[in-house]
Design a protein that fits this description.
Elements: E1 2-8, E2 12-18, H1 22-36, H2 38-41, H3 51-73, E3 82-85, H4 91-95, H5 100-107, H6 113-121, H7 133-149, H8 156-166, E4 179-183, H9 189-196, E5 201-205, E6 214-218, H10 223-240, H11 248-262, H12 269-283, H13 302-326, H14 332-335, H15 339-348, H16 362-376
Antiparallel strand pairs: 1-2, 2-3, 4-6, 5-6
């Protein structure tokens, strides 16, 4: 099953889940019906429940009913479902999060993959709130905001509004501070090459600043400079997306890479950049990406990072297919393919300390999963 999202107007959304031979019939019927109600859709103002919305919903329902019959006649699956949103629904509705497995799938976009998998395998009941209930709620608001932004152009205002949704206390303000980042592990030659090729960062060694291993300095400083770089990034992205034959994975990966390298905010730069990456993927009808390592972006070349984004999108799609096959009662452990890991953890008596509000060791989670994977192999 694949998903396609397209925006009709600035507030009205139609989400289509497609699959099988019924898809072509549905798309053609929807195109014909929506052409007939274009003028009505134009009457929709500020997401209000107007007569135009009611008429459009009625038309969409007719299309779905017709497609169900067509799908059966063609021997295909049941018709895809369409949902119309006005922006007034809770984010869970906008994002289509109706089951526990779907919530965990969404959480895997914001929680580090090793941490998420260990939490599920250990039987942790609510991994989505490991960083706090407020943080999860803010993330859902931000994610829904990108979905509602839809097929509109990238802009500086969109980036700052998105950050404001994600981190209300920071109010979307660009930081006036100089920013540095460091990692507690040795750097590889390929990472040095990627950083030195990146115009937005400067490679730092322990000879320059007192670091245990290595680090970077973000070179775009000052609010005016940050706004200028974001505007240039938006112009680049909007232009690139108009070029025929562009690679949507490459475009989304480079967008994320540029935003996190500019590092415009005091905090939440990584999350904002990944939200924009997934927004870009979904604009092109692709699944969002479950990244293997959030911190690998700046240390990766654009081609390598594109491969990582593509792989994460494929993983999301595979999990979505598994969730659909397992049904509404799907156990996230099965949906994520973690049943064997769970058994190994239970047999060994090993675990990782997971307490909301406390620092959690991602590297410990990664090492534990690697050890268990090697043992099972």
């Amino acid at each position: 099953m694949s998903r396609r999202w397209r925006c009709s107007g600035s507030r009205l959304w139609v989400c289509v889940e497609t699959g099988g031979t019924g898809t072509a019939v549905f798309v053609q019927a929807m195109r014909e019906q929506l052409t007939a109600v274009t003028k009505q859709a134009a009457e929709i103002v500020h997401g209000e429940e107007t007569a135009a919305i009611a008429a459009l919903r009625s038309k969409a329902g007719t299309v779905l009913a017709d497609d169900e019959s067509a799908g059966r006649l063609l021997g295909g699956p049941a018709a895809p479902t369409a949902h119309t949103w006005t922006g007034n629904e809770p984010p869970e509705t906008i994002l289509g999060l109706h089951t526990r497995a779907q919530v965990m799938q969404e959480a895997s976009l914001v929680i580090d993959k090793p941490l998420m998998e260990v939490a599920l395998a250990q039987g942790y009941s609510n991994p989505e709130i490991l960083f706090g209930r407020g943080a999860w709620s803010d993330y859902l608001d931000a994610r829904a905001f990108t979905r509602l932004h839809g097929d509109q152009d990238l802009s500086v205002d969109f980036v700052t509004d998105l950050h404001r949704k994600l981190a209300p206390s920071l109010d979307g303000q660009f930081t006036p501070k100089r920013r540095r980042g460091s990692w507690d592990r040795p750097v590889t030659d390929s990472e040095v090459a990627a950083i030195e090729a990146n115009p937005h960062v400067k490679f730092l060694t322990s000879e320059i600043v007192p670091l245990k291993n290595w680090g970077i300095e973000y070179v775009t400083n000052g609010r005016e400079a940050i706004e200028r770089e974001l505007k240039a990034t938006a112009d680049w992205y909007n232009t690139a997306r108009q070029q025929p034959g562009y690679d949507p994975y490459h475009l989304a990966a480079e967008l994320q890479h540029r935003i996190v390298s500019i590092h415009p905010f005091e905090d939440f730069n990584g999350r904002v950049s990944r939200l924009l990456m997934n927004w870009s993927l979904e604009r092109d009808g692709l699944p969002p990406s479950v990244l293997e390592d959030f911190n690998a972006d700046i240390g990766s070349s654009i081609p390598d990072w594109t491969d990582a984004v593509r792989g994460g999108s494929d993983l999301y799609a595979a999990r979505a297919q598994r969730i659909a096959e397992l049904g509404d009662s799907a156990d996230p452990v099965d949906a994520f393919g973690l049943r064997q890991i769970q058994g190994q953890l239970e047999a060994s008596g090993r675990s990782v300390r997971l307490v909301p509000g406390y620092a959690m060791d991602i590297q410990q989670c990664r090492a534990l999963l690697a050890e268990l994977g090697a043992a099972s192999g």
